[in-house]
Amino acid sequence: MQNGFVESFNGRMRDELLNETMFLNLAHARVVIAAWAADYNTERPHSALDYQTPADYARTLATASARLAAREESSAYRALAQPAPTGVNTNRAQAAAG
User: Which residue has the higher pLDDT, 42 or 86?
Assistant: First the structure.
């Protein structure tokens, strides 16, 4: 998780909920905070998600993953890194343990 996201979440929670709500007791605080967090995490559009709600963004990712998986002939993961260029020595000495 990136620090910017955490700071943004904390600031919004403080400004929109904690500074504006008088909690009656701990049980009331838990219910109100859980409802606010659920709204923030599912219903509210986020700029980091191209102004989609997290639920819509998750559906987009699931749909894209399903399409990609359908096109793949193998269930094996593809390599993320490109192979070393020809002539580059990729053998490394093993480090001694301990």
Answer: 42
